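Recall from the previous chapter that SMILES is a line notation for molecules. Here it describes coenzyme A.
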Amino acid sequence: MAVRIRALAESDDRAGFRSGNEALDLFFHQYAGQNQFRHHVGVTYVATESASEDESEQLLGFATVAPAALDADELPNGKSMPPYPIPVLRLARLATDERHRGRGVALALLRFTIELAEHQRDEVGCVGVLVDAKPESTAFYERFGFVPLDTLAGEILSAPRAISMFLPLGSVPRRTAPPA
Ligand SMILES: CC(C)(COP(=O)(O)OP(=O)(O)OC[C@H]1O[C@@H](n2cnc3c(N)ncnc32)[C@H](O)[C@@H]1OP(=O)(O)O)[C@@H](O)C(=O)NCCC(=O)NCCS
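With both inputs in hand, we obtain:
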């Protein structure tokens, strides 16, 4: 069974997705579609799988991204940057369905997000990926080279508060195998 990553479609049935995190599930079920198709404030990418060509696709996980900007002095390497807003790609949300954890789905979505940031860099400018990480997920992002941004409080309204983390594009590790 091949895992594929593609943009969310209006026809996707999101109602059965369960990440175990209520806020993330509510976002995916109710807001991801209107944000993407009506307001155009972000795009959600889904990792999908189907048992055969005739079977409908299952949604294994999702990543929501949006363009953002940081001041140069908020960036780890900002001293060498010009003194105006610096473009980054924000990974606003990332979740894997509980039934598909531990298969590399989040890793694949993260790598896909980094590739999007690289396209953004080459097409319109982008210096890295910004994420507002839940405290229990900072270790996940640290493994991929994200560093906490001391100057920024996370923008997701949650308790405990999210921690802003940043991956400069120059430090991205090489691609590894896709999810099994
Ligand atoms: C965190 C989450 C996205 C991981 O999804 P997943 O698809 O099971 O993750 P993967 O299988 O791609 O894991 C990749 C690696 O990260 C590790 N990992 C997973 N969650 C981790 C965490 N919270 N802290 C540290 N490492 C973690 C895995 O063990 C795996 O390591 P390995 O390659 O050595 O086996 C998932 O548990 C989830 O949806 N949690 C609820 C929502 C959430 O916390 N989202 C993060 C947004 S801030």
